[in-house]
Specification:
Number of helices: 14
Structural class: mainly alpha
Largest sheet: none
Order of helices and strands: HHHHHHHHHHHHHH
Helix content: over 70%
Length: 302
């Protein structure tokens, strides 16, 4: 139960961040500046927290795996997300996000030898159906200025995130979430710095005589809530549940974004949205209830 609470909370934080990202990008905040600020802020926070926790020695071979996870799950991943979101539309981004469980299902089967059961496959199909239904029921239209390039970046972003979920599963069983994240964000900050630091000077609110409170609050939410807290919850969830199940909660993000849009008058409630939500959570339930590799082996032995 803990794992589901952790990953649900993380995806709620990510879902809320979508309109905030769009707000900042529309305010001419460079995507590279957002990316490096998230990496540096989270790096500092995780290392500070680690000083008050039991020391964990990370094996050299795991440091190399953490470097790969850092690039796939934070560094390149976040840069692709923000740049792609600027060029893509929220509708396109939501559609592309439904590919994550498919990527994870295939990667987990290849890398972790997780079985692709009928129940798990049905759960993924239902989740995709619910996500697509929600997207197509939106009252917002796609901006004609959106490019294929942005959509491709978003698709690559989702693939990178899927690789991270699968590769980080073994690490989550050996180290605490703080240890994993302090190294991942350190590697990410060092990797991104040469390419992104120069863009921080172009953040509009840093040049005003009076700070824009809305922009500052939006930045703080992205740095603290949607980065530090959310990314700490992911390895905590992976300690209890499989990458495939974790990826299924990705469908929660469009639902949260839709709820926010309805609350602020940008969208309207419909029975179609309710049905899509039901499909998503039934899909998550089926994937959760599908048998693990160990369970199937035990049945074969019996």
């Amino acid at each position: 139960m803990k794992g589901h609470i952790f990953i649900l909370s993380a995806n709620i934080l990510f879902g809320v961040s979508m309109p905030i990202f769009k707000f900042l990008l529309a305010s001419n905040v460079p995507p590279e500046a957002i990316t490096i600020m998230r990496a540096v802020f989270a790096c500092v926070m995780f290392w500070l927290v680690s000083f008050f926790m039991p020391k964990e020695k990370v094996l050299p071979k795991d440091l190399m795996l953490l470097l790969v996870c850092a690039l796939c799950g934070v560094g390149i991943n976040q840069w692709l997300f923000v740049v792609g979101l600027k060029k893509s539309s929220p509708v396109d981004a939501s559609i592309i996000a439904t590919a994550v469980p498919i990527f994870v299902l295939l990667l987990a089967a290849a890398v972790l030898k997780e079985p692709i059961t009928k129940k798990k496959s049905l759960g993924v199909v239902l989740g995709i159906s619910g996500g697509l239904m929600l997207v197509f029921s939106s009252t917002q239209t796609t901006n004609g200025g959106n490019s294929l390039w942005g959509d491709m970046l978003m698709l690559l972003n989702q693939l990178m995130y899927s690789v991270y979920l699968v590769l980080s599963k073994p690490l989550s069983g050996r180290y605490s979430s703080v240890t994993i994240m302090k190294w991942m964000f350190l590697f990410s900050a060092l990797t991104l710095a040469p390419f992104c630091v120069k863009y921080v000077q172009y953040v509009p609110t840093f040049h005003r005589t009076t700070f824009n409170r809305t922009e500052l609050c939006a930045l703080f939410y992205l740095l603290f809530g949607a980065t530090f807290v959310a990314f700490m919850l992911i390895p905590m969830a992976l300690k209890y549940i499989r990458p495939t199940t974790v990826s299924m909660y990705n469908y929660v993000q469009p639902i949260i974004a839709s709820i926010i849009a309805i609350a602020i008058g940008q969208d309207t409630f419909s029975t179609q949205k309710l049905l899509s939500a039901v499909l998503v959570f039934v899909g998550v339930y089926l994937v959760t209830q599908s048998k693990k590799r160990e369970d199937i082996k035990n049945l074969d032995i019996a």
